[in-house]
TrEMBL record, chains A, B, C, D:
Pfam family, any one: Lyase_1
Protein name per the record: Adenylosuccinate lyase
GO molecular function, one term: (S)-2-(5-amino-1-(5-phospho-D-ribosyl)imidazole-4-carboxamido) succinate lyase (fumarate-forming) activity
Domain Adenylosuccinate lyase C-terminal: 372-457
Length: 481, 481, 481, 481
């Protein structure tokens, strides 16, 4: 590590080795070679066997990973052209093929196709991380499906729900994120073999005007690079709209994780739910006892940055002039890795946090009991109406006492005595005993929350995880906190 | 029009009546009533026939549009609750049903479901506008498929392409926008009947604990409102992630239109292509002759605003606490209409511009001829290599003369004499005659551009338009310029 | 109110009449006339007395507010040029001056100068609102300067501070916002009289090549419009960088208010501090007792939108080509009013909320007492070190018991028994009595918080309010909640 | 360079060593030590001479740069606390002072103060770069003050201006950027010595309740760190509003540079102005002759990213809860360096480009002559009105012929024959000779452009550069293109 220049914290602190590798020089330059191999193979298969011989192909395939970076770097310094420098270095390793490497292609042939190959791989990595988080959270949700807890609107106590039910809300959003990943994967294609401004002019010349062969070349290259199609048309590059969709897809994951993390930070203040806490973890120097929700906080900040990146891609796409302008280069070079690395870091945290969250039912119950009389007011209203009282009038009476009881809690830090107040009010047709009875089974206030949780997990999540079981790999969610 | 207070320009200047109506009070309040009708019908159908009678349903259905807004407004002022005020006013019109309107529901039952109904309708309106623009542009593209023109990279002349081919690039992006609209329409569902914090507690009570009936109620309401499903789970509102996806879907259209419009503004400077110009349209007071690309400029500005709105939805979604916080209210009230109105205005312009664009082939040809010698350098290189020359060496020679010829053009505003220079250089194995021959058929430099255009229009666009032919309605793209 | 088309909610719901008026057609068109009067007067004063006569000036001055909007609108429809239409209508009212209205000017003379006049006035309105909020909050801060309360880091209890001290943090940020307003007001200038592309060519001709007179004309016009200077140079319009600075200045206020509002929403959950609550205000239909922090939530949402607008201005400025492109028009037409109206709405809420906030000291104390043993750990550590114990060792012991006590609170919802645990541990050199003594005066834990508050209010805020006392006008902060 | 993990391109490609160093670990950790020295010195000076001895101070000062990073890193790994790890390592080097390093402070004492010290230094570096760009551009502007050129509105030819005058527009914006830098430097202060949540509790204890000494400590520390003040009040950290202002200040520079660069890219297409081009620079592999405006394009992309960063700071600031939440940490760790590095890269490019821009007067003249007849229409109108013709009628006639002449140019790629057309129209009271005469001196059409340029350079720029002459240092603007 160099201590006298800036180090990118995404790499030094937050992300997985897999993702860092995907955006490394090594991945880039070896993928360039795979593109050249794909092109040469396709040319050979389509009949250019005397120009591109089987021997050359063998040589090229054998040297995909055999790169002398220093030679390439020196050549680049000299001719100021990275692609040509690597054509040169590859040529040194493949003396027979040297003349046909990159035949008919321009720089963007390797640059765009490599970008797309790497992005697709990175998206699959993200997809896996998201599935892991879904799995963890669904297990948590099932485990807590029947724990009644305060539901909040305006961050004020509303009607009760269950812990598990609340977590299905995040899960449903994650499923939508997954749908958008899959939609993105449907849209992304290879750039194929398109030529300088996308007209395939050099390839048409190479194939002596045979349009069908050039179309096949385009498709063959795509297939060899792992795509079922190439973009039907391109300018010099693949459409930068694809990048915008990429950014939005990832930002969606960031937004879901952000909502989850903020809720957890609030729950942590309430002391009812916590992120996992490692034994050796220290709070601040002065406050030994604190269990700061640092992972959720970190996640929040990373997601804030991620959610703001699609804007850049939109700006770049919308301001590309004609077949291509180079104002896309520096910004994509930073933002495409950044948005994947941020998502990677976020999912690492998300998987880590959801792997072992702690719930404190006693605290939950304490809060619930303190608010239950307020929450029962709707039930009391309904029962009173059943008894023939006017809903409007009852509403007024209940409101009056609610506010008074609430005032007492706030102004004198007393316990909530709403039921007592109601029982003592002649207009209310219930005794304190009857009122206490009404609130005794507080899980009854949670309506279908538990059932909804079961249904959602059984009908949506389980089939999803089952369908993806072969594609899910454990990820390393250990953190340096 | 009130002249002493601010008027929203989106309404007064840029948008269609249809879209303005969709976000009006009238649409909102009548849709609320449709939600109440749907709920009552579903309750009736599921067996609550003695509480919700057929007679009540008739009454409710008959009064959906019969709203006395002043009474509702006055009631709202009094009780400070818009939904209850309209329950009251609806009750005045439906004396028999008065007691069962909104039965078991909370405000968000009408608010969320109405939002979703309106958004879906608005999205279909947008979808139609986009199809119109696709249709116009595909016709333009076909008409100009074989007009050779300068391709630009770095906004510097690169290899030639065709006008039609360039326009397939926009078309391909528009098809992707359409795919994202369709994906959004797949994701959007009704909120259904979910209750205060989404637990359906009041409905479960109403149906005496019969979970299946409550699930059916939820689905029935959704179907009656035009959806095939409702969200499996909700908090107090439907997930605000849906709004984020809404914003992104529309921003995608804005971005495509922006790229198109900027290109057209540049073409307009080159005097090779123009937006339609109305006879009576005046330039500025002092510059009578100017044909300013005002529609494209307006489109650019509107799209810039649109592309920035998804950020707001992301922020709102990611910062919703638990079952719902009200920081979503004011911002959604502005931004959801704004993003639809902006897209509506953009598509109106896009359809208008693409309906009658003018191309000036003589100008195009002039530019092409001035650059063709430069553009032919690749061809000359290839031919020289075929003759046994070293590509690297030829590259250097050609580069040297290219720069010199370019210098002459720039520094002395002379014609391009590159071919003459090359012919006179002994290292180049071609005569001036041969070189002139090489550039004579300039459409040959466009490679597969024409063919690609045909293929794309035949294989992608035509089937798309055919499949949607019944859903496309002419839109009014007249403008107040 | 039209019920069948969209109504801008900023106008119909949230903002002051003053701000709505500033962005009305009436203000725009009468200010145009003031610009024409200023120009004519300056031309007259600089010697063009036979072209621009005193009589004409009288006529023009007399008809500034005398506008027949229908005639102007009809003319605009005909000639499609709003400025010329108003020149025409003004001419109808001023038959003598008709020929010299707008003499030597182009449209942007009235458009830009009017924009700047209106923006400056609007900024002064905002400045006043901000001062009102500062005044309210400083009074609250002084009143609560000595109320000890939990300080939070990570939204976990940290060391105590005071309520007043916490509020000085918002105040300090508001003072910075004010400094940026004043900086903006220093930077904003008139556009003056600059001509089509800013070269003053027509004016130079008018003054027969007299450069000095043209410079004076420019300055005179600026002064007559209330500025001490005009921009030294312009293209067709004043620099759009100014709009970017405008947006940032206002967004700063939004951000400060947002932070304040979010804190208040959290305090409201804790039941320790609340926004004012009107007697008649109703919670939701089902939850009568709730005191939802609706104003703070509304403020949060409005601020979120405001904070995102500078981006638009930056994009417009950075993409203006040469002397001006029209992609600024539609977006500025929306965004400049929007950012002022949003800030106006935010300040109305901010002033309203801070005018009568409620604090519940009993609740505050309850929280404090529950956490104080934890908070005293630093003090206990220091005292133990004074007694010769190793800080590192004590830290470990205290940490162990802190975590255990915290666990008891969370897992069993018990009271905090940390001090008892410490007293019983032989390694800690203090009795329970001594430990209780250490936490007895909890205001001692607040350090200089009270003093800092006094100093800040006395040394920063009071002088500021004093210096601005003549410029502050009461604003109407009543809301429609 | 590690080839198997992602490398931040800002560092590896675009920025200055100075800026990279400022955000390095070395700068951070040595500045932490400077903070500790400042604190100890101040404590000593304020009377704690027996706790903090002169000998300790010597020891501490001697070891500021003497850091064993590996020991610190290992300790951090063990105790998971970076500040405490460095206190430990510093203590190893300073055995006498070991017990008083960091006395009474919390982590944010070193973290915040170091952040502010580094940011201030970085801002001064940026200020210098901006001044260099101003200097370069003002020289270019003076050199080209009288070169008449097409002014553009809507990117359509408008009235002529001069090259120099156009460049004063960028200069004026840069001067505004400088004013905002200076305003930022006025606002930024030290965090001083504030304690855990900003109450200075530990310091008050240390000084036995002496408030004045604690205030002095705060100020002394600030002064020793190079600030004239510390923030009057803080929470756990300095206000994150400061970061928002930081981001806006830098984004302003990005926006100015972006506008400049886009204009230059357009001029480059017109072949009238170019960025410097190095001899060895190659275009793309296939297009040897191209002089792509790659620096301006790169600048455009970098600026797009920079302009989007203030949003992040606004979001972080506005969502900080109470005295501090940690969601600021990861995002600031990335975005503060990023925004400085981006600005650094942009200014490097800006200085490089403006150091040696090329203008092609012959091309400029060609364009001007082609448009001049159109441009002269205003003059012709005025002359005709002087001769007694109706302006409205003449306007119509001129417009008619302008459009026809323009049509001829576009449709048949012919020369502009407007004057001939006018001369032949009996309604126009001028002969062709007279009309030619009117356009002969085309510099006459530039109004005060040259004069304005002189005035602006003499009255605004020269004094500014003079006032800053001692603070300007040459910067290395060499690029790796």
């Amino acid at each position: 590590m160099q201590r006298d220049i800036y180090q990118e914290p995404l790499v030094s602190r937050y992300t997985s080795k897999e993702m860092q590798n995907l955006f490394s020089e090594k991945t880039k330059f070896t993928t360039w070679r795979r593109c050249w191999v794909a092109l040469a193979e396709a040319q050979h298969e389509l009949g250019l066997t005397d120009i591109v011989t089987a021997e050359m192909l063998d040589e090229m395939r054998a040297n995909v990973e055999n790169i002398d970076y220093d030679i390439a770097a020196q050549k680049e310094k000299e001719i100021r052209h990275d692609v040509m420098a690597h054509v040169y270095e590859y040529g040194l390793k493949c003396p027979k093929a040297a003349g046909i490497i990159h035949l008919g292609a321009t720089s963007q042939f390797v640059v765009c196709n490599t970008d797309l190959v790497v992005q697709k791989k990175a998206m699959l990595l993200i997809r896996n991380g998201l599935l892991q988080a879904i799995k963890n959270l669904s297990e948590f949700s099932r485990k807590t499906k029947d724990i009644a807890t305060l539901g909040f609107t305006h961050y004020q106590p509303a009607q009760p729900t269950t812990v598990g039910k609340r977590n299905t809300l995040y899960l449903q959003d994650m499923v939508m994120d997954l749908a958008y990943i899959d939609n993105y994967l449907d849209q992304v294609k290879a750039r194929g073999a398109k030529g300088t401004v996308g007209t395939q002019a050099t390839f048409l010349e190479l194939f002596k005007g045979d349009h069908e062969k050039v179309r096949k070349l385009d498709l063959l290259v795509a297939e060899k690079l792992g795509f079922s199609e190439s973009f039907a048309v391109t300018g010099q590059t693949y459409t930068r709209k694809m990048d915008m969709k990429l950014g939005e897809t990832l930002a969606g994951i960031g937004a879901t994780a952000h909502k989850f993390a903020v809720d957890l930070r609030l729950l942590s203040n309430l002391k009812v739910q916590e992120e996992p806490f490692e034994k050796k973890q220290t709070g601040s120097s002065a406050m030994a006892y604190k269990r700061n929700p640092m992972r959720s906080e970190r996640l929040t900040g990373l997601a804030r940055k991620l959610m703001n990146l699609p804007q850049n891609f939109a700006g770049t796409y919308a301001n590309q002039w004609f077949e291509r302008t180079l104002d896309d280069s520096a910004i994509r070079r930073m933002d495409i890795p950044q948005c994947f690395l941020l998502t990677d870091a976020i999912l690492k945290l998300f998987v880590n946090i959801t792997s072992d969250m702690v719930v404190f039912p006693a605290q939950i119950k304490k809060y619930l009991l303190a608010e239950l009389p307020f929450m029962a007011t709707e039930k009391i209203l309904m029962k009173a109406v059943e008894k023939g009282e006017s809903r409007q009038e009852m509403h007024e009476v209940v409101k009056e006492h609610s506010l008074a009881a609430g005032k007492e809690v706030k102004e004198n830090a007393k316990e909530n005595d709403l039921l007592k107040r109601l029982a003592e009010d002649g207009r209310i047709p219930f005794s304190l005993e009857e009122l206490n009875e009404m609130v005794s089974d507080y899980s009854a206030f949670t309506g279908r929350a538990e059932k909804q949780t079961e249904e959602f997990l059984d009908e949506v999540i389980s089939p999803l995880l089952l369908a993806n079981r072969n594609e899910m790999a454990e990820i390393d969610s250990s953190l340096s906190v």
